[in-house]
Amino acid sequence: MGRKFAVAINPKWCKKCGICAAFCPRQVFTHKAGHVPEITAEEKCIGCNQCEQRCPDFAVTVRGKNDESDS
Ligand code: SF4
Ligand code: SF4
User: Fold this and answer.
1) What CATH number is given to the structural domain containing 8?
2) pLDDT tens digits, one per residue of 27-64
3) Is residue 22 part of a domain?
4) Could you tell me the distance, in angstroms and rounded to a whole number, from the CA of residue 30 to the centre of ligand 1?
């Protein structure tokens, strides 16, 4: 198994623009206009950090998870 990642959006900072969903190469997010994107396929995340880097409001965080241990 490869590395796994935990993806989170801080809804207080998110302005619901959908950029994270648009740039994610793995369709981790599901974005409906006017809503904070939902993280619907976290297991597909490859940790590319596009979402974190493209989010204009620093609302997305991507953390590496160890295979077994997790916080
Ligand atoms: S890019 Fe950032 S502000 Fe825009 S929808 Fe995604 S989390 Fe929200
Ligand atoms: S790190 Fe890359 S693959 Fe993972 S959710 Fe963000 S854009 Fe998608």
Assistant:
1) 3.30.70.20
2) 999 999 999 999 999 999 999 999 999 999 999 999 99
3) yes
4) 11
